[in-house]
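Chapter summary example: a protein plus coenzyme A.
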Amino acid sequence: MLFFAPFASLRLCVIVFNLPPNCSVALFVAYETLKTETLTRPRKAIVTDVPKMQKIINHFADRNEMLHKSLNELYEHIRDFTVMEEDGEILGCAAIHVVWDDLAELKSVAVASTAQGRGVGKTLVDHVLGEARELGLKRVFALTYVPDFFAARGFRLIDRNMLPHKVWGECIKCHKFPNCNEIAMMVHLDAPHVETN
Ligand SMILES: CC(C)(COP(=O)(O)OP(=O)(O)OC[C@H]1O[C@@H](n2cnc3c(N)ncnc32)[C@H](O)[C@@H]1OP(=O)(O)O)[C@@H](O)C(=O)NCCC(=O)NCCS
């Protein structure tokens, strides 16, 4: 469905504005660029963001798309989180959690339904990967139900058993354990194809 969305917009330009296809392509590219460029820069989360972040995360968790987060967990890990906002509203969040000297976990990537498809998710992920790189980390993993989104950001599928025991320790606390079907993915930050900002 997502794959066809750009083509649908392009077709709309041709039909609604009655433009020749090459003008429509230019208009479409300009629109796609503009909608990403008007986004504000990601920033570190502050405590007043937490209830809004929780609302976004738990909305998707209620639909079994990610794990629920309590206010307590979010306050305790506030320093891991980056957010993007617009007009005082939180558009989305992402967290980078250091696990060991060369390894971190990318967690809680969530974009409000009303803000999806504008580049918020990829901007947040690229930003926190940049943060991980600045911390001197070499590898970042994610446990996810949307592997294609992460694959486009340089992540590759891995065997879950490659992850350290510390991670499994956290999994054991999860209500889905051991019937969790999240997919494990890893990105190597020194790989040439990884974009971070
Ligand atoms: C997955 C999610 C974070 C994407 O956020 P978004 O802001 O809509 O994504 P973007 O607009 O930055 O899209 C970036 C690219 O990923 C693609 N994409 C977006 N959602 C996708 C999905 N669910 N599966 C595969 N690709 C996806 C887009 O088509 C876009 O491709 P392009 O760069 O070629 O145009 C968002 O849909 C979300 O919050 N989902 C619910 C929670 C969730 O599943 N989080 C994932 C971590 S467990």
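Key point: Residues 21-37 form the longest helix (17 residues).
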